[in-house]
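re: ur question from yesterday

yeah so i grabbed the chain u mentioned. its 338 aa long if i counted rite. heres the sequnce exactly as i have it in my notes:
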Amino acid sequence: MKVAVFSTKNYDRQFLEAANSQTQYELVFFEPRLNRDTAILAAGFPCVCVFVHDQVDAPTLEILAAGGTHLIALRCAGFNNVDLATAAKLGINIVRVPAYSPYGVAEHAVGLILSLNRKIHRAYNRVREGNFSLNGLLGFNLYERTVGIIGTGKIGLILGQIMKGFGCNLLAYDVYHNPELEALGGKYVELPELLANADIISLHCPLMPETHHLINSDAIAQMKPGMMIINTSRGALIDTQAVIEGLKSGQIGYLGVDVYEQESELFFEDLSGEIIQDDVFQHLTTFPNVLITGHQAFFTKEALENIAETTLGNITDIELGRPCTHEIRYQPEKILIG
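ran it thru and got these structure tokens back, copy pasting raw so excuse formatting
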């Protein structure tokens, strides 16, 4: 089978080609992102492989279907960039890679917490300039601090396990209670109680209409003054402008994000020689208590191996007509996984 792989970087090609030694698909790599303007590149490809910032909307899907595509293989967990209703109408199967890097993402969240708290990123730059002053680098003990985890699937659970090792108290908010987190001593509470009592809040829930701008001005007003927010999930969980106001007022004492609401025009690209036009993002970078990474929480060797192997395995399942546990099936008012 011919597979058109969009949004390709060198590391994507490296790991997909290594995994393909077992399947022998004809992989054709395209550096541009998939959208309605680039979809014509996939003409004649039964399968198209995409990543988080590819735009798989209705016009794009219609172009793909006209060109013979019947399978979209997401090499990511989220599928909010796919028009599932249109895909179902056109008879295009959708598969994804769930939970490919739970340890990597949770560990990155902890890295943001530690760096922000102990100002490690600022201390590194100071020492390189011969400045060994400790002024402005004061942190706090994580021991006995309260960590609020919003979303307690695999990543949220692993974060809870790590923070429990630091001696933290765990509060949790999720529609579904995870008994493994409760076994750690984690306490499920309603969102207002978590917001009011957590010293650190870490977001690990999916982006859905119900969670869009979950962290907004009303939520921020309920938080402890000077608390820390960490987001390694999806950028639009946070109302960026509201967070900026919270940083300016001191209500938010620390912000660590690996995702950003308008990141599709920024992340995964080298823009070091350009003037970034996003004024909101540029404003965020001016705060000394903000740490931003460019959607790299997933980026580990183990994750890229898992993404490549699972992606090609999903394609094989669909090609051979086998049940695929990672298929996303759309029904009106309902999305079924597997």
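noticed a couple things. The CA atoms of residues 46 and 69 lie 4 Å apart. also The mean pLDDT is 95.
anyway ttyl
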